[in-house]
Amino acid sequence: MPVITLSTDFGWDDPYVGIMKGVILRINPRVTLVDITHGLSPHRLPEAAFKLATAAAYFPRGTIHLNVVDPGVGSARRPIAVKTKTQTWIGPDNGLFTRIVQDHPKARFFHLTNHNYFLKSISHTFHGRDIFAPIAAHLSRGITLASLGNQISDPVFLDLRDPVFKKNSLTGRVLYADRFGNLITNLSRGLIAHYFQPREITVRIGRRLIRGVRESYGQERPGRLLTLFGSSGTLEIACNLGSAAELMGYIPGKVLEVKICIEKTRR
């Protein structure tokens, strides 16, 4: 049975998610629908790009991912599909799939242009319902991407400002704060291990210094900041039984750098 996932910034207060599901089920009532999240921060594409790439690895071959974070809806931005060896992503061409492509450099891209597979009436504000949902449903029934549009080679990519190693320090940034107040960075375990022994590092964030990397939240006293590698394999700044975001005064969308180095400091 085909699987379609849904990830949006729509939330649950409005009927938008349910409407998209209705569109899909009218076209293919045998599909399995999985909600990854509808709590993506509105319009924050770098955060959404990271979360989509993190979730995709846990779904079976052939999964179709329907993704809508679309501040440019109704404009000239293109509806596209991204096809990798094992899965397909549907959504707006605004950089949302940048990290997917980084993980799958041989991905192919299609501009979705065949209106025969859209809803008959296309609004300027709800392409999730009128374009992306029906396209995902038709794909799940075996329609090929070549039938849905033309292959392209110039998708939009975000400037994600990858970590930089300079003068014996590695500088990244906070991508977002999760609902527990953990600050999720773009510094992966593998990248850090390439330059340092994680147990020996000092993490500088704002005016704070945190020495070493813990394995769990409970290895630090309540109310104290710590660093650890989260389930996605990236470095997190956390607070045991508290919110690191609140302690750091983190403002979503504002750049907050995280620097890793070896230095002696008191805790």
Quaternary state of the chains = single chain
At CATH level 2, the architecture of the largest domain is 3-Layer(aba) Sandwich
Please give the largest β-sheet: 8 strands, antiparallel
The CATH class of the largest domain? Alpha Beta
Given helix and strand content, the structural type is alpha+beta
Ends distance: 54 Å
Number of helices: 7
Low-confidence stretches: none
**Using only CA atoms, what is the Rg?**
20 Å
Helix content: 10-25%
CATH superfamily of the largest domain: S-adenosyl-l-methionine hydroxide adenosyltransferase, N-terminal
- Overall, the morphology is elongated
Mean pLDDT: 93
* CATH topology category name of the largest domain: Rossmann fold
Approximately what portion of the residues adopt beta-strand conformation?
25-35%
How would you characterize the overall build of this protein?
The structure is a single chain. Strands 8, 9, 10, 11, 12, 13, 14 and 15 form an 8-stranded antiparallel β-sheet that branches. The protein has a 7-stranded mixed β-sheet with strand order 2-1-3-5-4-6-7, sandwiched between helices. It has 267 residues and is an alpha+beta fold. The termini are far apart. It has 2 domains: 3-152, S-adenosyl-l-methionine hydroxide adenosyltransferase, N-terminal (Rossmann fold); 164-261, Bacterial fluorinating enzyme like (Elongation Factor Tu (Ef-tu), domain 3, Beta Barrel), CATH 2.40.30.90. The chain contains 7 helices and 15 strands. β9 (169-177) and β10 form a beta hairpin. It is elongated and about 60 Å long. α1 packs parallel to α4.
